[in-house]
Amino acid sequence: MAERVADLADLSAAAVEAARDHEAVEAYAEESRRTEVTAHKGEVEGLTFAESRGVGIRLIAKGRLGYAYAADPSLDEVREAVARARQNAELATEDEFNALPPAKPVEPIAALFRQDQATLPTERKVSVALDLEHLAVSADPRVTKVDQAGYGDAVSRVAIASTAGVTAEYGRTDCWAVVSALAEGDGETQAGWSFRVARELGELDWGSVAQEAVERSARLLGAVKPASGRVPVVLDPFAGSSFLGVLAGALSAESVQKQRSLFADLLGEAVGSPLLTLVDDGRTLDGPAAAPFDDEGVPTGRTELIARGTLMAFLHNTYTAMRGGTHSTGNAKRGGYRTPPGVGTTNFFVQPETSPVSDILRQAEGGVLIQDVSGVHSGANPISGEFSVGATGLRIANGELGEPLREMTVASTVPEMLKGIAAVGDDLRFFTSVGVPTILIAEMTVAGV
Amino acid sequence: MLDRELAGQVLRAARARGGSFAELFVEERSSLTIRLDDGKIEELTSGLDRGAGVRVGHGTSFGYAFSNRLDRDALLEAASAAAAAVAEGAGAGQVVDLRTQDPPVVHRAERPAEAVAAAEKVAWLRGVDDVARAFSPHVRQVSASYGDSVQRVLIATSDGRWVEESRPRIRLGVQVVAGRDGVIQTGFHGPAGLAGVEFFDEHPPAKTAEVAAKRAVTMLDAGPAPAGEMPVVLAPGMGGVLFHEACGHPLEADIVDKEASVYRGRIGEQLASSLVTGVDDATIPNAWGSFSFDDEGVPAQRTILFQDGALQALMYDRLRAEKDGVSSTGNGRRQSYAHPPIPRMTNSYILNGPSKADDVLASTERGVYVTALGGGQTNPASGDFVFGVSEGYLIEGGKVTSPVRGANLTGRAIEVMSAVDAVADDFDTWEGVCGKDGQGVPVGSGSPTLRIARITVGGTGG
Q1: DSSP string, B355-376
Q2: Domains defined along chain A, listed by start
Q3: Nearest CA in chain A to B338
Q4: How many pairs of residues across A and B have Cβ atoms under 8 Å apart?
Q5: pTM of the entire predicted model
Q6: By the CB < 8 Å criterion, does B216 face chain A?
Q7: How far apart, in whole angstroms, are the C-alpha atoms of residue B253 and residue B259?
Q8: Residue in B closest to A64 by C-alpha
Q9: How far apart are alpha carbons A182 and A192 in whole angstroms?
Q10: pLDDT tens string A148-188
Q11: Residues A331-350 as b or e (16 or more Cβ within 10 Å = b)
Q12: Contact B375/A48, CB-based, under 8 Å?
């Protein structure tokens, strides 16, 4: 990998050199090397090695934006991509806010790249995957098989260069473990999963991934449909993280400017319970999404979006900041080199409070703990904030988890849910880029029968 | 893209340590995406992708390596990386001479999208914006995207298959936001095909815009959905979406192989209403989920999954078919060269039945009529599923009355499919991108109007 670092810089420099007068050109180059191992019935099920590289070109001329990309391009193909982006720009609508960010000093984050991880031998990765599956099928007699048990890792590097003077580059290592366990009893099968990510294997607690998946599947055996009613609802971090995605969309300045956010006119107003503080922090190493700069080279930072229930800010990239007359929060985000930057989150999390989970369960007497929700992406309306989603969970009785529940739906609106937060736990847990502790909602409609 | 001699070399390198087969998948994909939002052509993106993946199978395990370099060195390096997954080398495996396979069906683009100027495509989107905004003063925002791509694939396998195919895909999707008195609703429509721009003769962009706008505007009047068990009538196409999620996924052979399917070991049993005949069919000409060959080089075919409610077959790729001692059903698909193939649906359809849609509604005393589902999820192990309803109405006294919002449908696959008590004859399709194991592939769903006698509707109303 190391010898190719110069390549990325060469490719992006070639693009910048191909710019004509009065054109703004930016090249985003990335490369990655991934390995994934899945295990099944004590054997390696699949072993995948991947190498990929690509360059995306953003070109702005007379306020018009064009984009083109190429996979593993030669220097000539990079120049061709600049020409295609130029053609595309001619057909786009002029927009005075189209601009590339000016160069700003970037503080590197050395801890993102771990040399040991970058050189980890394949045999070690295989042994982790096999161990994951073994741990999952030997922890509980009711769990004898997995739907999925796997280890994966990636070594990646990003380089950005532009006619506005940006030249930024960084590398990172990531690794992860995932288990989806299947519990059986009385002709019934229940699935439970868990997932963790780290920067190197030594910091990846894969044993707990197996253990959690087992617990979460086994405790659902014998689940019944609940009666319909309004009850206290505890969202465990797995379930809570699904809702954070909806909030991320609504807090993007892009959604706000296009009238697609339920928070559009609410800056400075109370949008949630005073217990709710929601943060985006691209620099905290506690979250897996830390990076020195965003996907257009703007240094990352910390933004309090909701502070003690009050809506304080939105997430911005350079375009939305220009349009909104403010500065970028370092939240430009792309789906890789194939797409121009939009607005997205970095480490996006609910600030933990001091309540231990046991206290929250006591407060939720007669309610339900939701451990998984499905269909949030389709069942929640990001604009109106209404949702009705399928869920599995457990009844709460005498301050403890009781009877398992299935085929249950939970319905509310995002504003009601945020205002109904009655307790926030001390157990912040990150899932890829979103993090959330256990949360108690005073009351929600749960339907079963 | 590659000559046969090099392909043969790569396959031999992949079988250096044995294994049951080796396969080379080479892909080149060119694409154009245009996005209109907020009345502006915000973005035009041209893309050029290419890469190759080498897979070595041994039993139900595999090694896979890919690169987006197509030179000899990179391909041979990928081959030896994939071969390394075969734990105990049993000596080199054989590679049969590569022979060109004839396609069972060819999905031709009559008027290839790449030959049409981008300016014309931009004009379609501007037209969409005009039509949607003119539909109602309550339309607040319109976003639309146009995309076309040509995926050229080459597949060579150690048992002698040589397959080349060009897959032209086209889609135009419109999302409309409507608002009134603080209420905001959205509507989406996005037909898609494996075709050229002639696709728009049957699916004019203006019609797509109108459907999306009507959906959003109608839902402004929606009241809270009822909650509880009741009859639900699914409009044409929507039964196919449910069939895809609730029945299709648990019938994919990898899910069954992992003992995670509610249908495991139950072929021949009556597991749906006798009114339900369901197929997976990649041979439908120019349909979004179709192809000539699957991504393992197996010819496209039509597989009957349910015949009159009796379970008939699973959907196989080569790996699982070999394990079960059957033939692949041509369901081995992958998102791109960067992914190993797994069993996937193509176009999964519930076929027409004997009833008339009007009669089905007229004979429903009280229930919900679902005209658009927002997508859903299934737990294949238990058959539990959930679907969001993005456009739905009350049925009262046999008539479709007021729209409802915030509804979803939950149930279990076998129970719900057995509760189908009416199937009409007005088949239609719905196109989407299905995600599984981190891979998205184009899939079609389809069905006529059908009624489920009892299903749980989750809503906020009483």
Answers
A1: B-HHHHHHT-SEEEEEEEEEEE
A2: 2-214 (3.30.2290.10), 222-449 (no CATH)
A3: A50
A4: 241
A5: 0.88
A6: no
A7: 10
A8: B42
A9: 7
A10: 999 999 999 999 999 999 999 999 999 999 999 999 998 88
A11: bbbbeebbbbbbbbbbbbbb
A12: no
